Amino acid sequence: MAVTERDRHDHESSDLFIFVAMSHGTEGCFLGSDGEDVNIYDDIIKQFRSDMCEGLMDKPKVFIFQQCRGTGIFIFHSHDLQTPN
After folding, report:
1. What is the CATH number of the domain that holds 12?
2. Which amino acids are annotated catalytic?
3. What is the pTM assigned to this prediction?
4. What is the pLDDT of residues 38-48, one digit of tens each?
């Protein structure tokens, strides 16, 4: 979510904020959909501090990051699971 999108969203009626990201990654970073590293603190958590996102001030914020940190190269294959006509 871009900072401008986050700022436009009204969080006043929210009781808490939950962020979940699942990807490959390294210590302190995960791999973004564009293939670039995303720093967990600077690019994500820091953006939701009270001074950056006033609507979430004094509300619990939960960040969940699940990432494999392997160094091997993985090749994934996608198959169409539709039944042939």
Report:
1. 3.40.50.1460
2. 24, 68
3. 0.66
4. 999 999 999 88
